[in-house]
Amino acid sequence: MFTIDKLSRTPIYEQLIAQFEYGILSGEISPDGKLPSVRELSQSLSVNPNTLQRAYAEIERRGLCYSVPGSGRYLTKDALLHLKSDAEQKMNEFADLASALLERGVTKDALINAVNA
Predict the structure, then answer these.
(1) How do residues 38-50 score in pLDDT, each as one tens digit?
(2) Cα–Cα distance list, 39 to 8, 23, 43, 75 (Å)
(3) Using CA atoms, how far apart are residues 74 and 16, in angstroms rounded to an integer?
(4) pLDDT grade, residue 28 (50/70/90)?
(5) What is the 3 state secondary structure string of 39-62?
(6) pTM greater than the 0.85 cutoff
(7) What's the pLDDT score for residue 93?
(8) In this structure, what are the phi and psi dihedrals at residue 73, rounded to the nearest 5 degrees?
(9) Would you give the end-to-end CA distance of the chain in angstroms?
């Protein structure tokens, strides 16, 4: 389910967060589904448990999972909604930025080329 590119410039915890988000968006991780423990994931990926703890703390801060003491971490029921809402917010920010760039003389074609790149 999870893979790590140790040669990537992207920090390992950010790679894990992105994979959790992809798992949620693709339906691979179901609502209220139990997430692998830090120990299990640490051993299977050969990654420091502190790195995994950092990734889990971040996805919990984003409202995508919750902890049950003694039982583990679980995906929230509205994790997919959180991600879609975040994407919508980013699209609004992008639209505002595109408008500002157009006002400053950037051509529509230049914007489209930047998006395509």
Answers:
(1) 999 999 999 999 9
(2) 23, 20, 6, 18
(3) 16
(4) confident
(5) HHHHHHHCCCHHHHHHHHHHHHHC
(6) no
(7) 94
(8) -110, 145
(9) 29
